[in-house]
Amino acid sequence: MQQTSIDEIDVSKYDAVVLGAGAGGLLTSLALSANGKRILILEKESRLGGVWHGYRVGDFRVDQGLHVITRVKHGAFTRFLRTYLDPPPEFVLHEGWFFRVHDKVGTIPSTIGETLRWPLTDLRGRLGLARIGARIKTMKLEEMRKYKDITFLEFMMSRGADNQVILDVMQSAIFMAAGVPIDEASAYEALRTLKDTDKESSKLGSAKRLIFGSSEYDEGYVIGGMQNLVERVVDAISGDYVLNVPVERIVARDGKVSHFVAGGREFQHPFIVSNIPLWFMPGIVDSDRTEDQEFFKKWSNMKYTKGLTIWLGLSEVVIGDRKSRVIVHPNPNTWIISLSSFDPSCAPKGKELVGVATVIREDETREAKVEEVREKVLRIVHPEILDHIEMQHVQVSYATRAALIPGQTALDRPGPETPIEGLYIVGTDTAGEGVGLQQAANSAEGVAKTLFKRIGD
Ligand SMILES: Cc1cc2nc3c(=O)[nH]c(=O)nc-3n(C[C@H](O)[C@H](O)[C@H](O)COP(=O)(O)OP(=O)(O)OC[C@H]3O[C@@H](n4cnc5c(N)ncnc54)[C@H](O)[C@@H]3O)c2cc1C
Q1: CA of 263: how far to CAs of 6, 40, 278, in Å?
Q2: Separation of alpha carbons 297 and 312, rounded Å
Q3: Are 2-52+224-303+403-455 and 54-94+304-398 equal in CATH topology?
Q4: What is the DSSP string of 80-124?
Q5: Residues contacting ligand 1 via CB (< 6 Å)
Q6: Contacts (Cβ under 8 Å, ≥6 apart) of 105
Q7: Ligand 1 mean position to 172 CA, how many Å?
Q8: CA of 24 to the centre of ligand 1 (A)
Q9: Distance in angstroms (rounded) separating the CA atoms of residues 67 and 432
Q10: In the predicted model, is pLDDT for residue 342 greater than 70?
């Protein structure tokens, strides 16, 4: 892709126009380019990628957030990259999440045998976990759908699964997947996460995995960092992009896009894909039909997830190869990862880059949260880290535009079509399974499929 300026644009040269260059917008553009289409992207910020990016802080290279890529082997995000980037990026899988509850550490057991040896609770707790674990692992997707409008905590309570240690561990696992605690997360999304599958499988298959375990664990980090990946995706897209130009208005008349306004100019195009968060759309879409206005208004109140990441550059290797740790208790739930033990290129030789991530609520300040994580987590779990910090860098941003709560699950979110002909939507608040980049890629796949049929040759 080439950068161009708003004054030089001739929209008739492009097969589609993408508004907003987050992961959803870029992946849609990538899929369309691979099918011979030329794309124009308009982005309001001074760089491409949205919240998907990375940069250098002193001698260290950080990402925006701890990007643990789920479903590296089978997910939509890596499928996009394997299909469209040559050579595909390299991922390093981590060893699974280690949960620390007070002074004990264990993983989420994936088999009955592991459950019965689980070190984090007593025998009664283990038996309870075996019971609920078996129930979840053998549950069909169809049945899970029935629980989309209740919270995971309500689901657990209705099954009598009230052991506090189990709830603490579930809380941490669900926080990672849904970005909200178990008393807010949709039971449907939580159950799918715990069953760890996007696909339906037979009861026998599920039972086999439960007894013999599964080799399906596939989460990891991309070598070279997120910025490198975003740049490679941008290079592979065919077309042009304009930066620093917010789209001001999308005008629809009689149920069809008439034009859009950006940089003081009006543009007409039959295929417009918006990656702009739905919460901005009521202020941007100008339609003469009440149903269009109501559609965008309805989806403009999505509850998002917000993350706080503390990057710590250490003067020497302190955590080393203990590749993942999730601190369940004491609160707050925190993920600690030695990123440089996966990808040494993000820290100078002999030093270590550690990422510490947590969820931040609207009523909490960044300073208070950092202090809480340092004092209630790092000082207890890895006090030696605090003596070796030579760089501290804090990021706060939304991670996924729709937290997986009742009313916002994959079964509820709108898209890729809108009631307005010619206007499509993509992003992590629109239709698409999974969370984060998986969700962005699934939603991009949906838009691209719809547009292939419409645009023609
Ligand atoms: C802290 C953190 C941790 C994360 N961890 C993970 C993880 O572990 N695993 C994982 O898979 N994912 C993770 N993600 C999530 C993933 O990066 C995001 O969910 C995904 O990148 C969001 O994509 P999106 O399509 O919703 O676009 P967004 O990033 O929301 O992009 C929207 C774009 O639209 C632009 N825009 C807005 N208004 C206008 C306008 N009027 N005109 C033009 N452009 C406009 C914005 O500037 C932006 O570029 C994490 C993200 C963060 C921040």
Answers
A1: 7, 15, 21
A2: 41
A3: no
A4: HHHHHSSSPPPEEE-----EEETTEEE----SHHHHHT-TTS-HH
A5: 19-24, 42-45, 50-52, 64-70, 246-247, 275-277, 280, 307, 309, 397, 399-401, 427-428, 436-438, 440
A6: 98, 99, 119, 325
A7: 22
A8: 8
A9: 19
A10: yes
User: Atom 10, ligand 1: which residue's CA is nearest?
Assistant: 436
pLDDT tens digits for 56-80?
Answer: 999 999 999 988 888 888 889 999 9
Q: What is the mean pLDDT of the chain?
A: 92
Task: Give the pLDDT band (50/70/90) at residue 299.
Answer: very high
Cα–ligand 1 centroid distance for 46 (angstroms): 15
**Look-up of token digits 């699964």:** 161
Give the atom of ligand 1 at the shortest distance from the alpha carbon of 395.
Answer: 1
Whether the Cβ atoms of residue 403 and residue 180 lie closer than 8 Å to each other: yes
Centre of ligand 1 to C-alpha 399, Å, is 6
Question: For atom 6 of ligand 1, which residue has the closest CA?
Answer: 67
* Token reading at 174: 């669900």
Contact between 28 and 18 under an 8 Å Cβ cutoff? The reply is: yes
Q: What is the CATH number of domain 54-94+304-398?
A: 3.30.519.10
Model pLDDT, residue 216: 57
Q: Is the pLDDT of residue 351 over 60?
A: yes
Distance from residue 118's CA to the centre of ligand 1 (Å)? 37
Cα distance between residue 78 and residue 72, in whole Å:
6
DSSP 3-state of 54: strand
CA distances from 435 to 111, 189, 321, 409, 426 (A): 25, 10, 27, 10, 14
pLDDT at 187: 96
pTM given for the model: 0.95
Residue 99 has pLDDT above 90, yes or no: no
Domain ranges of the chain: 2-52+224-303+403-455, 54-94+304-398, 109-212
> Coil, helix or strand for 395?
strand
What CATH class is the domain 2-52+224-303+403-455?
Answer: alpha beta
Closest ligand 1 atom to residue 42 Cα is 43
Return the closest-CA partner of residue 81 out of 437, 339, 433: 437
Q: Which residue lies with its CA nearest to atom 53 of ligand 1?
A: 399
In the block, residue with structure tokens 């070598």? 223
- 324 touches 94 (CB < 8 A): yes
d(CA 118, CA 246): 53
Q: What is the pLDDT of residues 399-414, one digit of tens each?
A: 999 999 999 999 999 9
